[in-house]
Design a protein that fits this description.
The chain is mostly helical and 48 residues long. Helices cover 56% and strands 0% of the residues. The termini are far apart. The relative contact order is 0.08.
């Protein structure tokens, strides 16, 4: 019975995380989907 409640809680946390990612992921992401690149250089770049 406790395992079922744990699975439900983990599922709800995952649902909240996915919702926040879809809502705010584009605004706060550096290299995610929809990110606007501020420096448009040609070729690959390596950043540490």
């Amino acid at each position: 019975m406790r395992f079922d409640l744990l699975m439900i809680a983990i599922g709800l946390l995952l649902l909240v995380a996915m919702t926040f990612t879809l809502l705010f992921g584009r605004e706060y992401s550096r290299h995610g989907y929809g990110a606007i690149l501020s420096n448009s250089r040609e070729g690959p770049s390596i950043t540490a």
